[in-house]
Amino acid sequence: MNVIQSIKSHLVNLPGWRTKRKIVVFESDDWGQVRMPGPKAYRALLKRGIRVDKSKYDSLDCLEQKADIEELTEVLLKYKDLHGRPPIFTTNMVMGNPDFDAIKKNGFSEFVHEHFYTSYEHYYGQEMQPIWKKAIEDKVLFPQFHAREHINTQLWMRDLQTGLRDTRVSFDHNFYGVKTQTSSLHQKNYLAAYHTDSMEELRQTEKVITDGLQMFQDTFGFSSKTFTPCNYVWPKELELYLSEKGILNYQVQSGSTQPDPTKGGNHSTRRLFTGKRNSFNQTYSVRNVHFEPYLDEDKAVEKAIVDIQRSFFWNKPAIICTHRINYVGGMSIKHRDENISRLKQLLEKLLEAFPDVEFLHSARLAATLRKQ
Predict the structure, then answer these.
(1) What are the extents of the domains in the chain?
(2) pTM exceeding the 0.85 threshold for the entire prediction
(3) Which side of the chain, N or C, has fewer Cβ within a 10 Å radius?
(4) Tens digits of per-residue pLDDT, 28-62?
(5) 176-201: string of b/e by CB count within 10 Å (b at 16+)?
(6) In b/e form, how buried is each residue of 23-50, taking b as 16+ CB within 10 angstroms?
């Protein structure tokens, strides 16, 4: 298995754009999203027969708190690249979450959105806008657009209205990440926000994206130039619309899922590489390094360093996938603190091995790709 993984990691780096520069980009998805509301909800869901214990995301991932961002940014500010810049996390933002009380009050007839700043107040009683503002000004966090919600709202609301058992039980505990048999032939959960089974669903998805991008602009004061689709799932038909909205680059994995809304959502796999362009002159950047200590634990640092070395061997930027789940402590402070320690180890080893490294965020990498 290790040999196969090694071969695959080399193959990912073969096609596409190359550079002699030692570029490192950290891409971190899901910020702003409420996944598991907290330990109390987790225990209650288990009692109701919802097997949230089978997924590390369900047992560890949750909305970030003030301490989580402070711990992360404190570490990032300790290190500097060739130009004296700190490592910068591209935080791919989920602009909000369901307002569960309002949806229940309207009898599941209409989806109601809650801004992620409101979610901080709702779940933690914390005012988080100053924390984000400072991290952005310190150039250690750089938001880009991920989703309005990390939910396929059309599918979720349809199944809530029809009363699917696991979906409604999960809703009662402010949880939407349930793995279950949905009313879609192709989806076993509600997290793929851009999965569309029809052209009508595609048009509705475009409206949701319009809302989300405007929220992003209003929240951060600048537009998002890159985009990472939820679960790496999006229809190719969406790309014209996203180009018209100013998206220049897609943060993706090498094999991404493409549902076809003209064929009932049937899937195919798209093979992508860094620097590839589509017919709208948008580029793709492929994540070729994984630093996910929630999965790899003590092997995470070693694996990431090997991936980075392979990237540089092939003259490719090291684009590091490292999800928010690694850096939040609402479900387990021990989990967060251990992973923060592993991040320190990674940065120390990286700078020791490659003192000429350059830290870029995803939009800056996209601009570099487009110059070629």
Answers:
(1) 2-371
(2) yes
(3) N
(4) 999 999 999 999 999 999 999 999 999 999 999 99
(5) bbbbbebebeebebbbbbbbbbeeeb
(6) bbbbbbbbbbbbbbbbeebbebbeeeeb
